[in-house]
Specification:
Blueprint (H helix, E strand, L loop, with lengths): L1 H20 L6 E9 L2 E9 L10 H11 E5 L2 E2 L1 E8 L7 E9 L6 E6 L2 H4 L4 E8 L2 E7 L5 E5 L9 H19 L1 H11 L5 H23 L7 H21 L7 H21 L5 H33 L8 H23 L1
Parallel strand pairs: 1-8
Antiparallel strand pairs: 1-2, 2-6, 3-4, 3-7, 5-6, 7-10, 8-9
Helix pairs in contact: 1-10, 4-9, 5-7, 5-9, 5-10, 6-8, 6-9, 7-8, 7-10
């Protein structure tokens, strides 16, 4: 049958893609850049598991950060010296490096070039929180955008930074869900058999409420679960729902319960993007709200794109087997991730 051949083809392609996608996305670093007078303190936190060979010699890694992060003040280069390194500990899975930069004069216009991709790969990106007396700005350094310029002024009231921070973390939340293909595949599997507006609303609402709870608790430090446990569980949730679509499609009526249960796990995964920032409580609350809103907006955008084609395909005489084909492909990709994450744990 034609749909069987299509199923085999999609699963074969998914097996290849699953192996490739599992390695995409690169590492994410979180930097706090503090500007005061003629000096700049650059504190970088990077997950140890993403450093590879660079983690073997922390002194060399700190020196590499000082070499590849260039800071200019009003057009003149500032000299950087590694000041401190902190290896991973029981409660922190990241490596922290502090570099101090000395500039020739009080800083009015700051320029930062993040060249750490030369050490950690082209897909590395750094989320930087630039702070100075009277102001703040958040910047994302990524492929194609490695330089940022900031006017350092002492006249801005601190609360004026709040709206820009909220928008920044909102955008970070949107990027996290849209770029988090494992979360999107889980949503796709959840919605593959959904028919009608109300079942879809129940599933999306249950998933949203559940992951918002654990996202908030984890980001506030009230709940902690290591990534080596969370990441395999996320992959396992994808496999579970996709396989259930194939072997027990009649269970779609209780799908909102499955969405809620596994949503708690996915919330812990979402929280990892905020935990490493080491924000103050006031800033963390603002970041948490903006990030969570961004995640929901990205999620709703994905649902809005996915559901119309699924609804169209479910009509008689069109592509009634599409949910099964998609579910099989998702199950294969999820299984590849599960094995890889278990082996890496």
């Amino acid at each position: 049958m034609m749909w069987v051949r299509a199923l085999v083809a999609v699963v074969a392609v998914s097996l290849a893609l699953g192996s490739a996608v599992a390695h995409e996305g690169g590492t994410t670093g979180y930097a706090t850049v503090s500007v005061a007078g003629q000096s700049v303190r650059y504190a970088l936190s990077v997950p140890a598991e993403g450093l590879g060979d660079a983690a073997r010699d922390l002194r060399e890694f700190a020196a590499a950060v000082a070499r590849h992060v260039a800071i200019d003040a009003d057009g003149a280069a500032c000299s950087g010296v590694p000041a401190e390194t902190r290896p991973p500990s029981a409660g922190r899975a990241s490596i922290e490096v502090v570099v101090l930069y000395a500039c020739a004069a009080p800083i009015r216009n700051l320029s930062i070039r993040d060249g750490i991709d030369a050490v950690l790969g082209a897909d590395h990106h750094t989320i930087a929180d630039i702070q100075w007396s009277g102001g703040a700005r958040q910047v994302l350094f990524e492929k194609g955008q490695r330089v940022a310029s900031v006017a350092i002024t002492g006249n801005a009231a601190p609360d004026r930074a709040a709206p820009s921070q909220f928008v920044f973390y909102l955008g970070l939340g949107v990027e996290h869900i849209i770029g988090g293909i494992d979360h999107l595949l889980f949503l796709l599997a959840l919605l593959a058999l959904s028919r009608g507006v109300w079942p879809t609303v129940k599933i999306v609402t249950a998933f949203t409420v559940a992951h918002s709870i654990t996202l908030s608790l984890a980001a506030l430090g009230l709940v902690h679960m290591p990534a080596r446990i969370v990441e395999p569980l996320i992959a396992a949730s994808i496999v579970w729902v996709a396989v259930e679509n194939l072997v027990a499609p009649g269970g779609v009526g209780r799908r909102w319960l499955i969405a809620a249960a596994f949503g708690l796990v996915h919330g812990l995964g979402f929280a990892s993007a905020l935990i490493e920032l080491d924000l103050s409580r006031e800033t963390l609350v603002r970041a948490l709200i903006g990030f969570n809103v961004g995640v929901e907006l990205g999620q709703l955008a994905f649902v809005a794109v996915v559901m119309p084609p699924l609804a169209w395909a479910s009509r008689p005489g069109r592509l009634p087997r599409l949910p099964q084909i998609l579910s099989a492909a998702v199950a294969v990709v999820g299984a590849v991730w599960l094995v890889k994450r278990l082996l890496a744990a």
